[in-house]
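In response to the reviewer comment on reproducibility (Comment 2.3), we provide here a single inverse folding case reported in full, input and output, so that an independent group could reproduce the run without further information from us. The structure tokens appear first.
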């Protein structure tokens, strides 16, 4: 009798396991949803149980800017602590022209967002106080980053700025204390006051434009860890003047001005090759050792070019 009961129990257990394996995975549940007016039309939003906020147009895919919201005024603000990612439902469409003011303010669980390629501007305080946002890539269409757009994103370590960007506005990256380095595109014309204020972890800034952007005395205020600024060859004097006018200590102080250089190699059998550009401080000696060009034979001459 005992053996029979044991066999029966084993069969029941195996059956239960098979049922659990064959059962379909539970779909994400809708936590909250709604819609909001956008330029004569409407967009809808859905937050699921995985923390994904999806925003999409209802009927009309015409390009429109997202409306600006007041502080704590976005439709999903009360669910901000649950939002882990943001997706615009049709990334190939050009229906999103801007991220509205305060749109994702204080979404403290947000770690990633996919921005549409049609995006032109990021509004005031759009990602303010997103404490867990670690990196973000702005599409090549973005021209302006609004006041306090990324204020106090204290976990932000990497942001990729596009070659279309012309202006970084007041306090845009202020208090981003985990940001250690940033490359500023040559398209930039203005970096407003306090744009990088209190970025206490920032150690390196790279400017890529041949003409320095307008910089203010408070643009890099209290960036106490800043030790190097990299600028293109041929624009050293212009950058030195602009940066020193903005109060940055380049005159033998704690910040070193480094200049882009490249190396051109002339091979014994003719032809040239260029090494990838890098940066060196003024007065540094640039040395190339054991250079070899694959098709033309050993290098005969090394010429540093600035």
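Designed residues, in position order:
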């Amino acid at each position: 009798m005992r053996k029979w009961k044991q066999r029966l129990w084993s069969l029941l257990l195996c059956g239960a396991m098979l049922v659990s394996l064959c059962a379909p995975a539970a779909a994400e549940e809708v936590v909250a949803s709604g819609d909001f007016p956008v330029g004569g039309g409407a967009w809808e939003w859905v937050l699921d149980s995985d923390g994904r906020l999806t925003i999409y147009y209802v009927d009309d895919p015409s390009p429109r800017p997202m409306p600006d919201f007041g502080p704590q005024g976005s439709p999903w603000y009360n669910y901000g602590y649950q939002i882990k990612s943001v997706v615009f439902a049709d990334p190939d469409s050009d229906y999103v022209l801007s991220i509205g003011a305060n749109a994702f303010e204080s979404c403290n669980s947000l770690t990633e967002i996919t921005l549409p390629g049609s995006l032109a501007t990021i509004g005031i305080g759009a990602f303010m106080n997103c404490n867990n946002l670690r990196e973000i890539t702005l599409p090549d269409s973005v021209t302006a980053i609004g006041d306090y757009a990324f204020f106090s994103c204290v976990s932000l370590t990497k942001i990729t700025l596009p070659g279309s960007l012309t202006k970084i506005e007041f306090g845009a990256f202020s208090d981003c204390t985990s940001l250690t380095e940033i490359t500023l595109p040559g398209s930039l014309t203005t970096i407003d006051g306090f744009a990088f204020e209190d970025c206490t972890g920032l150690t390196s800034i790279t400017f890529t434009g041949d003409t320095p952007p307008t910089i203010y005395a408070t643009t890099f205020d209290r960036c106490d860890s800043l030790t190097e600024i990299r600028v293109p060859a041929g624009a050293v004097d212009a950058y030195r003047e602009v940066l020193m006018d903005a109060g940055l200590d380049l005159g033998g102080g704690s910040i070193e001005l480094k200049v882009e250089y490249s190396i051109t190699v002339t091979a014994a059998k003719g032809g040239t090759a260029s090494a990838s550009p890098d940066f060196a401080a003024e007065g540094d000696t640039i040395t190339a050792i054991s250079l070899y060009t694959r098709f033309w034979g050993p290098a005969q001459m090394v010429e540093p070019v600035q």
